[in-house]
């Protein structure tokens, strides 16, 4: 949303890293749909790494305990197949809010690589957004560059 497919952060991340990056996200889907689809996606693609956000749940005012439980199930499904998980925190649905606290709790519980500020920082920069909740071409590029840097720092890519 907000940019062409070639400008999406998965496409730009693939360009930057030289790796196959599969965009298995579904626009508008919540973690409830994602947790149902994830086993088949993991089976189909056999990824080494899974990036998880879960922002639509926040936008749709889902209960944070429920979001946390569903994200935890997704993380467990990936880790049970040997897939490393990187979690990105999503800000609470309040003006100038920081990342919802349950993301840090999940990262600690599952010992994940975690970024608690990327999405929040991008969403608080109007020049990087196409509307109130979606990034534009420049925003997705910045997101991909930041994710690539994080993956390099953690030794996931070289």
Give a verbal description of the structure.
The chain has seven helices and three strands. Strand 2, helix 5 and strand 3 form a beta-alpha-beta unit. Helix 1 crosses helix 7. A three-stranded parallel β-sheet has the order 1-2-3, covered by helices on one side. With 158 residues, the protein is mostly helical. The protein has one domain: SGNH hydrolase (Rossmann fold).
Q: Compute the number of structural domains.
A: 1
Q: Tell me the overall shape.
A: globular
Q: How many helical stretches?
A: 7
Instruction: Give the strand line-up of the largest sheet.
Output: 1-2-3
Q: Mind telling me the C-alpha Rg?
A: 15 Å
The description of the largest β-sheet is: 3 strands, parallel
Task: Summarize it.
The chain contains 7 helices and 3 strands; from the N terminus they run ααβααβαβαα. The chain is mainly α.
Keywords:
158 residues, mainly alpha, three-stranded parallel beta sheet, 7 helices, 3 strands, 8% strand, globular
Annotate the secondary structure layout.
Blueprint: H1 9-17, H2 31-45, E1 49-52, H3 55-59, H4 64-80, E2 84-88, H5 101-110, E3 113-115, H6 118-123, H7 137-153
Parallel strand pairs: 1-2, 2-3
């Amino acid at each position: 949303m907000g940019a062409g497919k070639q400008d999406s952060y998965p496409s730009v991340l693939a360009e930057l890293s030289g790796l196959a990056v599969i965009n298995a996200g579904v626009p508008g889907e919540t973690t409830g749909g994602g947790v149902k689809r994830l086993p088949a996606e993991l089976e189909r693609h056999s990824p080494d790494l899974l990036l998880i956000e879960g922002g639509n749940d926040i936008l749709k005012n889902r209960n944070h305990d429920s979001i946390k439980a569903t994200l935890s199930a997704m993380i467990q499904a990936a880790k049970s197949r040997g897939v490393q998980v990187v979690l990105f925190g999503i800000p609470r649905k309040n003006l100038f809010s920081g990342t919802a606290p349950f993301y840090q709790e999940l990262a600690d519980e599952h010992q994940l690589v975690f970024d608690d500020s990327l999405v929040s920082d991008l969403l608080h920069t109007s020049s990087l957004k196409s509307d109130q909740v979606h990034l534009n071409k420049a925003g997705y590029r910045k997101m991909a560059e930041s994710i690539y840097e994080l993956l390099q720092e953690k030794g996931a890519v070289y």
